[in-house]
């Protein structure tokens, strides 16, 4: 409201002369006037010597020469230093655009430009001097006026002040008047032209209002570029469709008295004007009108709507009884104070999300206009000729479009203050009215008083509705959990940790938890979580201990005092979380062991420690706690990632979800800041936290009509509250380690992080030389000899397979078979010769052996030649392709764009048009020059950048022109929004299985999925010039926020998550301004609708989700990435969303009375031992209660009994769990709609507060039935009230005395306790209410 009043007060316009407005209206014409520079010695040297801080500015006003009348509003430019006017050449540059539109198309309507100098005197006061003025002709006498030429013009300046134009001697043409004296050598350079681009925003700018292009106009989006001229190419904000329902006015002291005194005032005015008295009966009220319009502080956006108001009594007589009751309930309880009611629904399509947009209401009365003092009118031919209208009240309302529907009450205003219609309004009398009639309408004591400073109580809007937004329209649907406007809870950004007390520290130390040691086997230095952290990135980077061993030690989980509505304390728990970019972690089930000394300590915060459960179900108290370690060293981090890791520790919080290990229900969540893990040069550091485990409970977030079923659009507000469930005791540690510099093989070396990949001189062709690596020659392509089976298994099979008899083969195959036989015989002879020694006459046999060996070699060579001839084409093509192929590996994370350039060289002496073909949609070319420049600036890459580099052909691959021997840098980016199988590694609470208790090293990056992409650069002839084979090794990503939603199965979940202001959002760059940048969101699941809308400055940001839930008990996990750069380069926030699908069951019940229903259980593939668990066991019980057998493929009923203790709408979770495998078999979401019972008796007692003794009371109950009955007693506050007997029997008509025991409580106040008396079927017979006042 403050913005609207400020803009309205600063832009009050003087209307044109009344004679000018009576002329025929013409179409309004828009103009742009650019005041460029001022030339000439306007300021004398003496003025500059007398004043300090001298500045010069221009003022422009509209002036009507005919009537010597200034109108509109004087526009003032920004001030410029005046020293340049005292130099040579004297010139001051302004270059300020000025915009306006007017329908007064007349040559005598001009603009007066005044040059003003201001400075400070020696005493510090501000002195303003007028140094001259000029007359700028907007319209000329020529028919083609105004001109559309954009030529610079010079405006001659005159001595004096523009106030001289009001002198009667200055007649048109003013420029030729003898009293006007020109200033020599002084002029103002300007351009004036019609500006049709301003016509679409005429409704936002009032006529004859001079505005600067640098001025913020409500309803316009900020300007693009650096000029800041929002009117140069104006862009409208998106309008919203809004509605007003059940609008009515209440006038003080009553409608009858208000109109009676209004008639007296009108008659008094007529008497003063006409000079003759007027009879009261001669003046009648013909209509009561309401004018409603949207106002942006400058003027009405559209013409206000005129509607007719009728008294409430007339509505009650003409409508049905139900409507009469509705109106009667909407107005005051007093029957004598009826209201003026608007019977129709009001539609406002021009509303905009801007703080200066407001709705203006004007209450007008139409009276008949008597022709004379006698009060007799002439002929009543028309109402308009006989009616006079007076505005009596007005109001302005700046609605909060984010608040949703609800009631609004506004005070009505009047008097001489300015109003949007610039009309006279009857003043509002003071609250101390002297009229006896007013004193008779004073309210009785105890009822709410009206506003003391206003005569009128105001106008109300019981239902203010937001527009039907595409993502928000589901808020009007009666389905719970269907749409909810949530907000990022500040708990996770600030952490919920606290400092442990000395008693808790003593208990933890005596429990025997393993001590955390540093690399030298010494105890780790402990710090307090309340100590401030001084973070120095340079100290972290210069630390010699570059290895960081992060230790999470879960110690204890204790319960906090809660009311009776809380669920029973779990026996076992487990935790889920995700640290940095390691895979999500789920701990084993841990047993809660109660401490024997917990009750005897002064601090009761520590009650249960954690112990690991063995495979046989036992647990060892001797080794309590659970540890999880993460090793973050240079081998795990990518090059340059160390600073990101330290920034993560300094700024992020770790969210830990706590689950019940038996029922698999979420107990709550805790958040801990990681900034104390920064070692800052220390060898190791540890910190112990006591974290609050908080559960968020939602009331029914659907459209629930409360009280009045006929009132359209009444929405019950969302009730979201948090409950502290317990205290988690956690120790975090960071142990530094020296990193061993081990020499690794070349195959395991990390790939190059260069952003530029070149194919020039890079070849994977290893050549065919068999030289050993230690040979005398140094050649580039050297390869060692290898076994033939390893090189080519197909050829080896051909050579070592003996030919079949009669098989036909290559030429000479028969001779080769004989040679083989002879060779074998010669080998046998050679062996015998070697055994017997060398003897004469054996040389012939050696020659025969040599001949056989040569024949075998010839046969092998022929086989090799035939095989090579067959595979020659394929081998040559593969070798050539390998020669032009470049291999590159990148490390990518979810949502982050990996940018690189490929230096493609044309190896030919001819030019080519290269077609770029990519086989993976996640790898793309950067086609926009601005996007390319952005990524180069981020990567600090100084390679050449070209505009319009690619020739685009619709859906065909882009093309690139290459000159002979030219090298071009082609930009690529790889960006994936799909998650691999590691994302589901976190065993969800619903389908959880047992895990081993080994706290070994975390998952290696080798378990991450790997993606491949191939880019083929093909010349115009179709032959490839180069091939890029890209390997993307996906890495786990950081999760900043975790959301968990429970929703009915096979329906759509619609959520709106509100973001905090940008400058406080975790992940925002340091030093950012408060201006919100554009917001973009993407989702990892393409089947989920995830979007946001860019709103005006200062408006809140919402991220909208629409997800289809699966069958129960399925859990759908997905990620949402948020960007603030238009190119989606790096996400500033990554959210993980868990959607739990549950079977929905609607239960309607009465508080205190048991309601029974049956749920159908269907067996699975095998026999299971199952048990049912409820989130509210005090209100919901099941039959069978304990463990029972669920047969395979069978159908069985689970009987559920609900007895709600308090009325209202809320949600209860019911889980069916396999007790052996600890898996969820089925889950239900019970939507309870509990009505309050009928209270038959009410009592009131007073008790002392502060933990004193309670009180014993008695009440009686009479059996209204003639027979003997049995009754049961229940209470909605069992911790404050206990019964002497929970059940009793009483004869027919007899009276029974019920004994009550009231317990005291610590704090003072009041509490209403309900006592439910139920029959043997647990149906409510009577309900007593006891109001207990604790003093």
From TrEMBL:
Residues 886-1036, 1043-1140, 1152-1235, 1240-1335 form the NPHP4 Ig-like domain. GO terms for cellular component: ciliary basal body; ciliary base; ciliary transition zone; non-motile cilium. InterPro entries: Ig_NPHP4_1st, Ig_NPHP4_2nd, Ig_NPHP4_3rd, Ig_NPHP4_4th, NPHP4, NPHP4_C2-like, NPHP4_SK. Residues 815-883 form the NPHP4 SK-like domain. CDD domains: NPHP4 (cd22239). Residues 503-737 form the NPHP4 C2-like domain. One of its GO terms (biological process) is protein localization to ciliary transition zone. It comes from the Eukaryota. PANTHER family: NEPHROCYSTIN-4 (PTHR31043). This is Nephrocystin 4. It comes from Capra hircus. The gene is NPHP4.
């Amino acid at each position: 409201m403050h913005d609207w009043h400020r803009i309205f007060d600063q832009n009050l316009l003087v209307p044109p002369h009344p004679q000018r407005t009576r002329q025929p209206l013409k179409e309004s014409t828009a103009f742009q006037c650019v005041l460029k520079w001022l030339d000439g010695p306007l300021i004398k040297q003496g003025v500059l010597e007398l004043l300090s801080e001298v500045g010069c500015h221009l003022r422009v006003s509209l002036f009507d020469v005919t009537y010597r009348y200034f109108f509109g509003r004087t526009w003032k430019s920004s001030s410029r230093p005046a020293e340049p006017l005292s130099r040579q050449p004297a010139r001051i540059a302004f270059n300020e655009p000025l915009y306006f539109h007017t329908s007064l198309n007349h040559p005598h309507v001009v603009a007066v430009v005044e040059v003003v100098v201001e400075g400070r005197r020696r005493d510090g006061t501000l002195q303003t001097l007028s140094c001259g003025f000029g007359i700028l002709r907007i319209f000329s006498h020529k028919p083609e006026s105004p001109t559309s030429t954009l030529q610079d013009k010079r405006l001659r300046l005159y001595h004096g002040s523009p106030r001289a134009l009001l002198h009667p001697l200055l007649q048109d043409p003013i420029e030729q008047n003898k009293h006007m004296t020109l200033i020599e050598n002084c002029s103002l350079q300007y351009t004036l032209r019609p500006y049709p681009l301003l016509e679409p925003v005429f409704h936002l700018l009032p006529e004859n209002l001079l505005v600067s292009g640098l001025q913020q106009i409500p309803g316009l989006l900020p300007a693009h570029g650096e000029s800041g001229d929002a009117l140069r190419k104006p862009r409208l904000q998106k309008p919203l469709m809004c509605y007003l329902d059940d609008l009515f006015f209440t006038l003080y002291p009553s409608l009858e008295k208000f109109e009676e005194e209004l008639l007296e005032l009108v008659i008094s005015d007529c008497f003063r004007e006409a000079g003759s008295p007027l009879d009261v009966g001669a003046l009648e009220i013909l209509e009561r009108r309401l004018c409603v319009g949207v106002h942006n502080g400058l003027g009405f956006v559209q013409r206000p709507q005129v509607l007719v108001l009728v008294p409430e009594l007339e509505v009650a007589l003409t409508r049905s009884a139900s409507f009469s009751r509705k109106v009667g309930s909407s107005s005051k309880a007093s029957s004598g104070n009826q209201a003026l009611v608007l019977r129709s629904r009001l539609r406002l399509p021009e509303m905009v999300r801007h703080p200066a947009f407001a709705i203006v209401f004007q209450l007008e009365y139409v009276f008949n206009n008597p022709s004379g003092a006698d009060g007799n009118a002439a002929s009543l031919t028309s109402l308009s000729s006989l009616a006079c209208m007076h505005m009596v009240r007005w109001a302005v309302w700046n609605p909060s479009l984010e608040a949703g529907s609800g009631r609004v009450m506004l005070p009505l205003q009047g008097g001489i203050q300015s109003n949007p219609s610039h009309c006279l309004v009857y003043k509002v009398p003071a609250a101390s009215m002297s009229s006896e009639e007013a004193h008779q309408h004073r309210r009785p004591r105890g009822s709410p008083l009206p506003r003391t400073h206003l005569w009128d109580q105001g106008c109300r809007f019981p239902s203010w509705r937001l527009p039907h937004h595409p993502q928000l329209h589901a808020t009007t649907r009666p389905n719970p959990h269907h749409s909810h406007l949530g907000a990022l809870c500040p708990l996770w950004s600030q952490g919920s940790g606290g400092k442990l007390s000395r008693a808790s520290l003593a208990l933890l130390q005596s429990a025997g938890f393993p001590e955390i040691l540093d690399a030298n086997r010494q105890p780790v230095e402990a710090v307090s979580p309340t100590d401030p952290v001084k973070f120095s990135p340079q100290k972290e980077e210069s630390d010699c201990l570059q290895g960081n061993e992060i230790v999470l030690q879960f110690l204890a989980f204790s319960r906090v005092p809660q009311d009776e509505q809380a669920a029973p304390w779990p026996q076992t728990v487990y935790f889920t979380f995700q640290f940095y970019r390691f895979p999500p972690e789920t701990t084993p089930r841990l047993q809660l062991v109660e401490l024997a000394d917990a009750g005897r300590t002064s601090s009761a915060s520590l009650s249960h420690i954690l112990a690991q459960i063995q495979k046989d179900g036992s647990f060892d108290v001797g080794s309590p706690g659970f540890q999880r370690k993460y090793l973050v060293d240079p081998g795990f981090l990518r090059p340059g990632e160390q600073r990101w890791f330290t920034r993560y520790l300094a700024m992020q919080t770790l969210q830990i979800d706590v689950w019940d290990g038996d029922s698999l229900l979420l107990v709550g969540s805790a958040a801990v800041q990681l900034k104390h893990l920064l070692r800052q040069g220390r060898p190791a550091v540890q910190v112990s936290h006591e974290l609050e485990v908080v559960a968020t409970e939602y009331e029914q977030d659907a459209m629930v009509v409360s009280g009045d079923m006929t009132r359209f659009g009444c929405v019950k507000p969302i009730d979201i509250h948090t409950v502290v469930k317990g205290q988690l005791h956690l120790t975090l540690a960071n142990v530094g380690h020296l990193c061993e510099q081990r020499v690794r093989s070349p195959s395991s070396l990390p790939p190059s992080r260069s952003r530029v990949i070149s194919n020039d001189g890079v070849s994977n062709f290893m050549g065919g030389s068999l030289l050993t690596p230690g040979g005398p020659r140094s050649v580039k392509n050297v390869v060692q000899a290898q076994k033939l089976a390893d090189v080519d298994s197909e050829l080896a099979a051909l050579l070592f397979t003996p030919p079949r008899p009669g098989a036909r083969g290559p030429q000479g195959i028969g001779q080769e078979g004989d040679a083989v036989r002879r060779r074998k015989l010669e080998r046998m002879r050679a062996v015998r010769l070697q055994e017997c020694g060398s003897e004469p006459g054996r040389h012939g046999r050696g020659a025969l052996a040599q001949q056989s060996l040569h024949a075998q070699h010839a046969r092998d060579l022929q086989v090799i030649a035939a095989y090579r001839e067959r595979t020659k084409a394929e081998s040559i093509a593969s070798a050539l392709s390998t020669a032009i192929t470049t291999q590159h590996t990148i490390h990518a994370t979810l949502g982050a764009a990996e940018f690189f350039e490929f230096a493609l060289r044309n190896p030919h002496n001819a030019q080519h048009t290269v077609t770029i073909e990519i086989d993976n949609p996640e790898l793309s070319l950067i086609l926009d020059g601005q996007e390319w420049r952005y990524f180069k600036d981020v990567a600090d890459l100084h390679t050449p950048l070209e505009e319009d580099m690619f020739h685009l052909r619709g859906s065909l691959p882009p093309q690139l022109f290459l000159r002979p021997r030219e090298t071009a840098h082609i930009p690529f980016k790889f960006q994936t929004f799909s998650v691999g199988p590691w994302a589901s590694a976190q065993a969800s609470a619903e389908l959880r299985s047992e895990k081993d208790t080994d706290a070994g090293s975390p998952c290696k990056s080798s378990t991450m999925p790997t993606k491949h992409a191939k880019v083929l650069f093909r010349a115009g002839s179709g032959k490839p010039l180069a091939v890029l084979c890209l390997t993307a090794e996906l890495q786990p990503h950081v999760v900043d926020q975790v959301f968990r939603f429970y929703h009915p199965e096979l329906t759509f979940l619609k959520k709106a998550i509100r973001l905090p202001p940008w400058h406080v959002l975790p992940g925002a760059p340091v030093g950012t301004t408060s201006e919100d940048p554009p917001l973009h969101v993407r989702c990892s699941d393409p089947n989920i609708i995830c979007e946001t809308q860019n709103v005006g400055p200062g408006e809140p940001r919402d991220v909208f989700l629409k997800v289809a839930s699966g069958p129960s008990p399925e859990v759908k996990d997905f990620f949402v990435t948020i960007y603030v750069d238009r190119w989606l380069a790096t996400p500033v926030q990554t959210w993980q969303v868990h959607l739990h699908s549950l079977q929905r069951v609607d239960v309607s019940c009465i508080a205190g009375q048991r309601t029974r229903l049956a749920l159908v259980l269907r067996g699975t593939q095998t026999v299971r031992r199952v048990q049912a668990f409820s989130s509210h066991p005090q209100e919901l019980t099941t039959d069978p209660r304990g463990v029972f057998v669920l047969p395979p493929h069978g159908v069985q009923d689970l009987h559920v009994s609900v007895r709600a203790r308090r009325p209202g709408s809320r949600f209860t979770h019911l889980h069916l769990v396999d007790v052996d495998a600890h898996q969820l078999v089925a889950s239900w979401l019970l939507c309870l709609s509990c009505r309050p019972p009928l209270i038959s008796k009410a009592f009131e007692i007073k008790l002392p507060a502060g933990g004193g003794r309670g009180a014993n009371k008695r009440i009686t109950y009479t059996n209204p039935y003639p027979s003997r009955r049995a009754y049961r007693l229940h209470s909605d506050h069992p911790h404050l009230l206990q019964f002497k007997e929970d059940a009793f029997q009483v004869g027919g008509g007899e009276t029974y005395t019920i004994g009550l025991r009231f317990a005291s409580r610590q704090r003072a106040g009041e509490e209403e306790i309900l006592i439910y008396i139920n029959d043997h079927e647990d149906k409510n017979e009577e309900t007593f209410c006891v109001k207990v006042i604790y003093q």
